[in-house]
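Troubleshooting: if your tokenizer reports a length mismatch, compare your output against this known-good record of 149 residues.
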Amino acid sequence: MSKHSVFICLLFFSLTSLVAQNIEKLKLVDNEIPKEYTLTENDNAFSIQARLFYKNPDMYSMIIGKVKNKEVQNFQSSNDSGSIMYFEFEENFTVESFLKGLLWGQSKKPTNDHPEEFFVKGNLLIIWSFTKNSALKLLSKNKIESLLK
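Known-good structure output:
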């Protein structure tokens, strides 16, 4: 095997490893989660639209593209609960206008009934389904935005 082939193989395996870690590095880990919050298995997404989008993104694949990987973190505290949904698509996510309509309807921005916010960078999409003033949402947003500048 030539040096060039070895280099290409190493590069391929490195990139494959990085792609697999994209979502993991964005998730909140135990020492980042405020003490008043706990991770839970309960679906704490605020609105039904966000829940359906996470549970069955294939239903929208003709519009949004194919989801390669998805994960969710559900949190609760005595005065706050919600979900952070992480999506990795096969190609760049370019249909933010569709997602705005799906999550927020005609208002095209978060409301009290549909407070979800989202962030897109390349093929990554993160949806925060928390109330407007959620401390955990802000913590997560700051982490993700700093990592994905």
